[in-house]
Design goal:
about 20% strand, RNA-binding, alpha/beta
Length: about 900
RNA sequence: GCACGAUUAGCUCAGCUGGUUAGAGCACCUCGUUUACACCGAGGGGGUCGCAGGUUCGAAUCCUGCAUCGUGCACCA
């Protein structure tokens, strides 16, 4: 019979994967509603990828981990939901489209709001469909019928409802605060959206002349251009150098404006000159000091990042002397101011200096701290009726272990971040996003000045009936909507009712929330995970998920980040899938990867796992061709049969336990070892000699396919399809698709240590003979003779003679209990079994040397063990079984030594 | 500055709660076309587990310090 009738010689993922995925989709089995009898829910809400392009290897890793957990629990009979979606990612999407526009030579402002939003929507729609297609290529078994998008109408309603609720509870407020401003994005950023990095810059030592005096105080600053906004000079009250000037005034260089000299403990006497210029509009610390002393705020850098002195004019200051600086870009202004100070004799010196600057996490532009009227969430205010602030809720959820973070060490980072959390600025001056649900009834429009916060945009002012309302143009921080992701996707707020002050969940929300696991990369633990916990605790009074599993970053083979700007090092998961198949990519991202740790990915690695997938394929091919040709006459189980059954049951237990404990790499590793080393290289080879059993082979294969399926779903599903007609139809529960085949139950009574030990001995005998052959360069063609001397185990070895000889290419294996050992033979031993390979061309001298070496080795070992065993403390304190084992060991060593010495004598 | 990781074979990494002579994959060397698989099989070489102390009968594993690399947070103008 031709093997190719059953399976092609090599696995060809390209011809299989699309078809298999379509079968899964058509079956409708990704949808938990297809399992009406399942009661226990298991739910993962997919972290929505940004709809800004295509999936990269980092996404792939997340998809694979989630799919593994989902498929495993689905097979275990849970009501399993994996809900997919995409994020509109306001800033990221805006930037992408702005880049495209830049190539056309226009900006978003040239296009105008309406047209620009159309462009973004088109772009995002394209992206979303690409992402969906790619998710299918990755094998994601998510319920596409429940797919969500953070900017779709139902999500908008949820977001606006949330905003109104928080506003009504007094948790959202509008105020002028110092914010992080990106002059390129033209928007605010949250504190954690600012990345800090060291930059080489200059330290300017500027003389600030004291009024009515010919002395001055020197101030060191890295940002001289902000001095137009200075409102004071601060020194430490204990600083003897400046004590006498406190309460006096400074005439601000260039501006000629007078500012006070104040004292505050905040000033570090040892840093710089010990004198600090206070610029409240452009530095968070200065803002606090300014507030403390009522110094006022003079904002002199506008939204574009250019100098602007309107604030000075408004306060009635004469800007004539500094007019030439107005309109200058902030960094050009820095140079210009430095030069002007030098020319006017105010610059004492200039030193090079490294300081930290904040960068926009989306476009790397240097952040300008500035004061601005924005919307904030108050994280420290007690929530009405809850006796906890948002911050306290979020801390408690993790402290109490209601949420378990894997790996645990990220707890600390979470606490540290959450404890330092300031009010969260949620308004963005980005056009693309959820519009803030606020309208203003402005007095200039004939209104009453009312601020209206409502889910639907109001047509008229509820207070004065004015219909000429202005709607807030700012949009919400993307993380506001993604913070609601676990419950907005499950139907909040429609799926809740309030009864007697309690929240009653309905529908999917009741079934699946709190969700089971959140799987994501550690880099968004603050952006996203923390905010989800905070917002969910607020909205539902429960945690969003019970477990947070954090994966690491996917790096290239040299450990570098696969950034888009370094295309040559970036591995495109889709290219790899096309070349090696999805399963190979899955294995290379799952094996050897531990939670929270980064993964290095290289094409070599993917290739080697492609080889494994092919091995699995060929094992199946062998089993299926063999069983197709064999008849069902099978005798009793042999030692090898009992051994593989024992190993298989052990495997089921260990793989299940590993997945339950989120040790996915270990699960895959156990399976790989069993499949390749245990099943293929030993059991199948032995069964070829001793006679294979059709049903046993098939049932091992079937269990293997099930266990492998969550990790490599495509190849296992395809093999299962081809094997289905061969499987003995004893289990009526066997479905037509592997993805819903029940996870196997181990039979603990089949695990037999004695059997494993016995078969292990046969393996060792075979390996030792093979080793002897190879080391002595006995060609494979040369059939050898093997004589075993075993006084006690001849009856045990005898049935395996044939196996031993076939697997060692021996023409003849004989067993002796007693008798004269041959001297012109290679000598080996396994436990108390002596093995001889008589050779006509025996090199006696070489064998002597080898034996001498081995004797020295074992003597050293005996010496070490003896030292240990004569240590009274060891005997007294070590557990008994350890001591016993060691006694046993030394006895064996000594026996081995004796046999070796005897053989050595024979060679003389 | 504070915190958290990492440091094990040439390379990438396992090694759970301390207990034989420390493992895997890749790479390397030798041999091999035995009809499941050369995307393969058999065998092999290669590590004082970053350094220095300590706890312990016993440490890659626990503790302390140091070094190198990486990350997060906070930054003093």
């Amino acid at each position: 019979m031709d093997n190719s009738d059953i399976l092609p010689k090599a696995y060809e993922p390209q011809t299989v994967e699309d078809r298999i995925y379509k079968t899964w989709m058509d079956s409708g089995l990704f949808n938990p509603d297809a399992y009406p009898d399942a009661t226990e829910p298991y739910c993962i809400i997919m972290p929505p990828p940004n709809a800004t392009g295509k999936l990269h290897t980092g996404h792939a890793l997340g998809y694979f981990l989630q799919d593994l957990m989902i498929r495993y629990h689905r097979m275990k009979g849970y009501k399993t939901l994996w809900l997919p979606g995409t994020d509109h990612a306001s800033i990221a999407s805006t930037n992408k489209v702005e880049k495209i526009l830049a190539k056309e030579g226009i900006t978003r402002h040239d296009l105008g709001r309406e047209k620009f939003l159309e462009r973004v929507s088109d772009y995002v729609e394209q992206s979303r469909s690409d992402i969906g297609r790619q998710g299918r290529l990755l094998g994601a078994s998510c319920d596409w019928s429940r797919e969500r998008y953070t900017l779709e109408p139902t999500m908008t309603r949820a977001v606006r409802t949330m905003f109104v609720k928080m506003y009504d509870d007094g948790l959202i407020y509008r105020g002028t605060r110092i914010v992080n401003w990106c002059p390129r994005c033209m928007s605010t950023l949250a504190d954690d959206e600012v990345e800090h990095t060291d930059r080489e810059g200059a330290f300017y030592y500027i003389k600030y002349p004291i009024k009515n005096s010919d002395t001055s105080i020197t101030v060191a600053t890295t940002r001289p251009e902000t001095m137009f906004g200075d409102v004071a000079i601060a020194v430490n009250p204990n600083d003897d150098r400046y004590k006498q000037y406190i309460g006096g005034a400074i005439v601000l260089p260039l501006s000629n404006r007078e500012i006070p000299i104040i004292a505050d403990e905040y000033v570090d006497m040892t840093f710089g000159t010990g004198a600090l210029k206070i610029t409240p509009a452009h530095d968070p610390n200065d803002f606090e000091i300014g507030k403390k002393y009522g110094l006022g705020v003079l904002r002199i850098i506008n939204d574009e990042g250019n100098l602007n002195f309107d604030a000075l004019r408004k306060e009635g200051y004469d800007v004539g002397a500094i007019q030439s600086f107005e309109g200058m870009e902030r960094f050009a202004a820095r140079e210009a101011v430095g030069l002007a100070l030098q020319q006017a004799g105010f610059l004492e010196k200039q030193e090079s200096h490294t300081s930290t600057v904040g960068l926009c996490y989306r476009c790397d532009t240097i952040i300008e701290p500035l004061t601005s009227l924005q919307w904030f969430i108050d994280v420290n205010k007690k929530v009405a009726g809850r006796d906890e602030s948002l911050k306290e809720m979020a801390l408690r959820a993790v402290r109490s272990k209601e949420i378990q973070i894997i790996p645990e060490r990220f707890d600390k980072q979470y606490f540290q971040w959450m404890e330092n959390l300031h009010d969260w600025c949620i308004s963005r001056q980005i056009w693309f996003g959820h519009q803030i649900p606020v309208s203003y009834c402005l007095t200039k429009d004939g209104g009453c000045g009312e601020t209206i916060v409502s889910i639907e945009n109001p047509l008229k002012c509820p207070k004065c009936n004015n219909t000429n309302l202005t709607h807030e143009e700012d949009t919400l921080d993307t993380w506001f909507s993604s913070g609601m992701w676990t419950f907005s996707t499950l139907g909040w707020p429609d799926n809740i009712e309030y009864k007697d002050g309690k929240i009653i969940k309905k529908g999917d929300l009741a079934t699946f929330h709190p969700t089971t696991v959140l799987e994501t990369m550690w880099d968004i633990i603050f952006f996203w995970v923390a905010r989800m916990i905070l917002m969910t605790e607020y909205a539902l009074g429960e945690v969003p998920f019970k477990v947070v599993y954090l994966h690491g970053m996917v790096l290239d083979k040299d450990g570098r980040k696969m950034s888009k700007s370094r295309e040559e090092t970036a591995i495109d998961p889709l290219d790899m899938i096309a070349k090696y198949g999805t399963d190979a990519l899955r294995l290379s991202l799952l094996i050897g990867v531990t939670p929270g740790n980064n993964v290095r990915l290289s094409e070599d690695k993917i290739e080697s796992y492609r080889n494994f997938v092919n091995k699995l394929w060929n094992i199946s091919r062998y089993v299926l061709t063999f069983t197709a040709n064999s008849h069902d006459k099978e005798g009793d189980y042999t030692l090898a049969d009992l051994w593989i059954i024992s190993k298989l049951n052990r495997l089921i237990i260990e793989v299940s336990a590993s997945i339950d404990q989120y040790e996915f790499s270990r699960a895959a590793e156990l399976l790989r070892v069993f499949t390749w080393d245990v099943f293929a290289d030993w059991y199948i080879e032995v069964s070829k000699v001793e006679g294979a059993k059709r049903t046993l082979l098939l049932s091992i294969l079937e269990v293997l396919l099930v266990l492998w399926h969550p990790i490599v779903p495509f190849v296992t599903e395809e093999i299962y399809r081809l094997a289905l007609p061969s499987f003995p139809d004893v289990k009526p529960s066997r479905p037509s698709l592997l993805m819903v085949r029940a996870w196997p139950q181990a039979n603990p009574t089949a695990i037999n240590e004695q059997v494993e030990k016995d078969f292990g001995l046969i393996q060792q005998v075979i390996q030792t003979i093979r080793n002897g052959r190879a080391e002595n360069h006995i060609p494979a063609g040369e059939e050898i003779e093997v004589i075993l001397y075993t006084p006690h185990r001849s009856a045990f070895i005898a049935p395996h003679i044939n196996t031993i000889s076939r697997l060692t290419h021996a023409k003849n294996v004989t067993i002796q209990e007693i008798g004269e050992r041959p001297s012109s033979a290679l000598f080996m031993q396994v436990e108390d079994i002596e093995m001889f390979i008589p050779l006509s061309s025996m090199k006696i001298e070489e064998e002597k040397t080898r034996l001498d070496k081995e004797i020295a080795n074992i003597e050293a070992l005996i010496g070490r063990t003896n030292t240990q065993l004569s240590n009274q403390e060891f005997l007294a304190k070590a557990p008994e079984n350890i001591v016993q084992e060691m006694n046993l060991k030394i006895a064996n060593y000594q026996d081995e030594l004796v046999r070796m010495e005897q053989q050595r004598k024979r060679l003389v």
